[in-house]
Amino acid sequence: KVSGFKVKNDYVIYLSLDELDQIKHKELPYPYLQNAKKWLLLGCAIGQRGNDILNLTNDNIVHRNGLRVIELEQQKTGKNVTIPVLPEIEGIIEEGFPHKISLQKFNTYIKEVCRIAEINSLTEGKKLNPDLNRHEVGKFPKWQLVTSHICRRSFATNLYGKLPTPLIMQITAHSSEKTFYGYIGKNSY
């Protein structure tokens, strides 16, 4: 008999609050990069997966009990999630949501956004070597390791200890604390 197992992600890569601020204040040379920057900042503020972020529209913003919230159904899990519209989210969407792009373009563009914003700290991780078509493990400038998943992980990691863990888990839709702690690279204490 073969039993299933889970692969542990040894590389918890996220954007710190300082790095997000650096990205926020960086002028970008092209409108498509400015659009990707807005999606990246929005994603890091709401903690959802790439496709869930990129499918948001003004229809997802509703009023519940006098609060403005974003409501969505996660594609992967089917869970309904309600996220309060905080001031940093308000600032990003005040002119409306950024225009829609594919997840593949988003992943490509946010690397470029982070490169221009000088998110260069050497970070251990793995990335695809296009010549060998294999993933390589090593230390790389952080911008090279950025993918859409950094939004969700940055949200969870940056808010851990600032908001109650069950509230963060409700927004990220993690079902167990053990999974959540592993996700942000912490031991459950």
Structure commentary:
- 40% of the residues lie in helices and 17% in strands.
- The chain contains eight helices and five strands.
- It has helices at 17-24, 31-46, 50-54, 87-93, 103-116, 149-159, 165-172, 177-183; strands at residues 61-64, 67-73, 80-84, 122-129, 134-141.
- A three-stranded antiparallel sheet has the order 1-2-3.
- α2 (31-46) runs antiparallel to α4 and α2 (31-46) crosses α6.
- The longest helix has 16 residues, at 31-46.
Radius of gyration (Å) = 17 Å
Strand percentage lies at 15-25%
Arithmetic mean pLDDT: 91
Give the fraction of residues assigned to helices. Answer: 40-55%
How many extended strands? 5
Order of helices and strands: HHHEEEHHEEHHH
- Which segments are poorly predicted (pLDDT under 50) over 5 or more consecutive residues? none
**How many helices in DSSP terms?**
8
Strand order of the largest sheet: 1-2-3
End-to-end C-alpha gap:
34 Å
Shape: globular
Largest sheet: 3 strands, antiparallel
**Class of secondary structure makeup:** alpha+beta
